[in-house]
């Protein structure tokens, strides 16, 4: 009890009780009123009229169902993390089994079986010496860990470096450090900069950027950023720029960065939070250029959206430098639920499904079908570009207003699309089939045409 306070006359709080099983039967108006009154939605405007986004109840495969009973083709992959689709029995069973055995244990004190198994599995998937993995809960936390490791690596060597070089249009999460890496206006922070960041602007518009002739200007801009000023601790980039507009980078760009980092000593950090585990038609986005980074951040598709989970993998050489940390002889970073046993078990099941169903190859094939189907939209006067890589397709509009209308029209036709500014993005679960892609292409085409 807190001194000076008494519980004798404490008021009784009559909190409403909720039967979780009955939630699926609640009427849509009640559910929406409750949501409007109590929920603060991320990345959403605060307004008197909160809007009428779908109230989703369930999902199967690549479709979801709302409170009115309407079914949608989910071309957002939930939060871009539904790799294996909804209601997958293997993922549900893995979570249930581990919950019954051991939900979690503090990994700074002991360990559990699933964490070692999933770390070993990732080491087998990643190239080169990327065999040491730290587990966290989100992509933002993986970014925080990567920056901490990069800074600590140089401190451990006795040659401190703290500058990071990134893409201005890059996005690496929404914690303070993660937002500080980005130059996107929506990620601007109101705190003092914790360390120097050099943000490289695109040398061309997205339509031209993926062309071979854009490689030299983009690589040159990074070379200037790395070589001018104090040597950077790391270069931190996405394999495909997601939130910054669904931008495809020129082939060979990551190979040029690998060479630049080798010459300058900077660590190369690849953000695979969005791209990893088949999204771009390869297991990892950096596989398109055949390179091995020094650190890799991963999340989203790794647990299929079933449970929060993320990882940072690095080399044994980087890991071993932390034995020289003067305070604890290790990494001064961690989270209560990092490496959660249930999340690890689900991740193992996800990797099994990806391998068994060959979803990486499927992503490449269905991605080609999706992009081929959308390319004719490039002739529309409101469309600036159509581009894609694997199961990521972007229809860039000239006006943000038209992009918003296109997304709304597609929803009316039973398809949920993602919008990043002027970019309309189709990012379906990797389990989508040929018929689903045809349905998606048709709905986007009609939405753009206004039919």
From TrEMBL:
Keywords: Aminotransferase, Pyridoxal phosphate, Transferase. It comes from the Bacteria. GO terms for biological process: biotin biosynthetic process. The keyword Transferase applies. Transmembrane segments: none annotated. The keyword Transferase applies. Belongs to the class-III pyridoxal-phosphate-dependent aminotransferase family. This is Aspartate aminotransferase family protein.
């Amino acid at each position: 009890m807190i001194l000076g306070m008494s519980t004798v006359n404490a008021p009784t709080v009559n909190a409403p009780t909720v039967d979780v099983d009955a939630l699926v039967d609640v009427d849509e108006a009640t559910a929406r009123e409750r949501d409007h009154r109590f929920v603060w939605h991320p990345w959403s405007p605060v307004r008197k009229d909160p809007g009428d986004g779908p109230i989703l109840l369930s999902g199967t495969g690549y479709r979801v169902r709302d409170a009115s009973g309407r079914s949608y083709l989910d071309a957002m992959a939930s939060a871009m993390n539904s790799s294996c689709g909804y209601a997958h029995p293997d993922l549900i069973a893995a979570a249930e089994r581990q919950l019954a055995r051991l939900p979690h244990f503090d990994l700074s004190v002991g360990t559990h079986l699933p964490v070692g198994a999933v770390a070993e599995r990732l080491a087998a998937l990643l190239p080169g010496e990327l065999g040491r993995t730290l587990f966290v809960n989100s992509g933002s936390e993986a970014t925080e860990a990567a920056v901490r490791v990069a800074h600590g690596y140089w401190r451990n060597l006795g040659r401190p470096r703290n500058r990071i070089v990134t893409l201005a249009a890059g996005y690496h999460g929404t914690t303070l450090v993660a937002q500080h890496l980005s130059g996107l206006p929506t990620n601007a922070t109101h705190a003092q900069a914790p360390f120097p960041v050099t943000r490289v602007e695109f040398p061309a518009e997205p339509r031209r950027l993926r062309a071979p002739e854009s490689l030299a200007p983009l690589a040159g801009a990074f070379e200037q950023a790395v070589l001018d000023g104090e040597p950077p601790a790391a270069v931190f980039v996405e394999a495909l720029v997601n939130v910054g507009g669904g931008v495809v980078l020129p082939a060979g760009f990551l190979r040029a960065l690998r060479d630049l980092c080798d010459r300058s000593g900077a660590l190369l950090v690849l953000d695979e939070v969005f791209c990893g585990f088949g999204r771009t038609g390869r297991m990892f986005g950096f596989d398109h250029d055949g390179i091995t980074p020094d650190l890799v951040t991963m999340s989203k598709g790794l647990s299929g959206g079933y449970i929060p989970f993320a990882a940072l993998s690095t080399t044994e050489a980087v890991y071993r430098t932390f034995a020289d940390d003067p305070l604890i002889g290790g990494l001064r970073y961690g989270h209560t639920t990092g490496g959660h046993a249930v999340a690890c078990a689900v991740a193992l099941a996800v990797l099994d499904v990806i391998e068994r169903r060959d979803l990486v190859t499927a992503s490449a094939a269905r991605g080609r079908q999706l992009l081929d189907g959308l390319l004719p939209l490039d002739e529309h006067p409101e469309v600036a570009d159509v581009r894609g890589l694997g199961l990521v397709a972007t229809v860039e509009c000239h006006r943000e207003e038209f992009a918003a209308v296109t997304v709304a029209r597609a929803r009316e036709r039973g398809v949920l699309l993602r919008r990043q500014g002027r970019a309309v993005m189709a990012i379906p679960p990797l389990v989508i089939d040929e018929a689903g892609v045809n349905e998606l292409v048709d709905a986007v085409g009609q939405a753009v045409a206004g039919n």
